[in-house]
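ARCHIVE CARD
Drawer: 12
Card no.: 0347
Subject: one protein chain, sequence and derived structure
Cross-reference: see card 0346
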Amino acid sequence: MSGGWRMRVELAKLLLQKPDILLLDEPNNHLDILSIQWLEKYLINYEGTVMIISHDLMLVDKVAKRILEVDRSRLYDFKGTYSAYINYRKERKEVEQSEYNAQQKVIQHKEMLIDKFRAKANKASFAKSLQSELARMDVIDEPEAEQGVMRLRFNSCTPSGRIVLETKDLKKSYDDHTVLENVNLLIERGQKLSFIGQNGQGKSTMVKLISKNIFPTSGEIKLGHQVKIGYYAQEHSELLDPKETVQEAVEHASTPESRTNIRKILGGLAFRGEDIDKRISVLSGGEKSRVRLAMLLVQDHNVLILDEPTHHLDIPSKEVLKDAINNYNGTIIIVSHDREFLRGLAEKTFYFANKEIREFHGDIDYFLEKTNSESLSDTFKAVPKNKTEQKPPESSEEDKKKLKRKIDLLELEISKLDKRKSDLEIKMADTEFYSSAGNANAISEYNEIQLKISELNKQWGEIFELM
């Protein structure tokens, strides 16, 4: 059974007991979107007490009516939804920052007076009393935007050819069980794609076929020119040796050029001090996820395959990962059931069902919109049997909707490129930039971005005229 099916069996065993108190630690890990939506409805109507540890924003927001957050060894208790808590948390941090700043001014002033008067005989007692006051003071810890938030940036190597991947009549079976059949895909350079569908429908099988970890039963799968794949597997045990330390695992995955930066990269992923000497066997799920991300950062790739990358990551880390994906210049394939994470991320969504793959030209929200449903339980029934998205009867209103959607996607892409262009301009304005290593790559990337923005602006204008 897939990880999703195993999780469903364990969850079913627990729910059938109908306990007075349900303790659920990341219950949505490995569950598909349909199962998560069912779980949400079940927990909302559950008569007993439910305590959930989860980093799924939508699940928490719909189910929870009281939020407990552990932050820097403190417990914060808030009655209300998670959305309301976010606003409260923002205000709380602003207050904490103001209190910290005010106290620091007092401390600095007293320290200045101590330094000024400690050497003067007639003021020594005054300086000593100030020192006593400082010693008794309950010092406020410096607030952090997000303590321990990782820093992440994927750098693609030499670009691949225009065609990244092409399959023809692809079929994959395990003994008598056929998972995929008659699959014909074409993936082009620079695309950001998401794979969705129920557990056991072949999403992980497809990415394993693409990454050459398994081979098709029949049909053809062809990688394009200079394609280099970075693969983040759903199960860490497939790629991590429990006997290795964090640093050793990353070193073994690294290119020679990246080895000198390993400690810096691990520091950016919140592995500090002795953390890098921990054995993989003693790491938490979140720490193992960050090790796998570090391994991707030290490898050469222009195609990233991320199979359930948000499992075990906290909410701030997921936001950092989403930004890194948006800023990646290569091609990305994401397998995920995290609805909030997928929003606005993919330009195409591939839906896996009944051994086939169907293509939708937009993100998860677009997929739901095209199938006229807010619930995937209805969506799975509503998707037509042909392999491309269903075309509704043409109407002027429908045309406008399509064009508006295209414009929204173009504006999102232009905004991402403008941000990256601004970052490069700041680097290039530095007087030491042109004598530093890697400046040629940065200049080349800058020129490519300018051309891409020009092309997208032209497309935007053409579509706007049609509206």
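Annotation on reverse: The mean pLDDT is 84. The chain has three domains: 83-136, 163-382, 396-466.
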